[in-house]
Amino acid sequence: MRVRFGFVAMSVQLENASPSRTMTMANFAKLADREAGLRRLETLAEENIRNTLRLLKHCRYMDVKVYRMTSKLIPLATHEDLADWSPYEKLAPSFAEIGSFAREHGIRLSFHPDHFTVLSTPREEVLRKSVKDLEHHVRILECMGLDERALCNIHVGGSYGNKEEAGQRFLRNFGALDERLGRRLTLENDDKTFTAAETLAICEAAGTPMVLDLHHHAVNPGGESAEALWPRIARTWERFEPLGLPPKLHASSPKSATDPRGHADYVESGPLLAFLRSIAGSTPAVDVMIEAKQKDLALVKLMEEMKAAAADGQGLRIVDGASIEVEG
Question: How many CA atoms within 13 Å lie on the side-chain side of 164?
Answer without folding.
Answer: 0
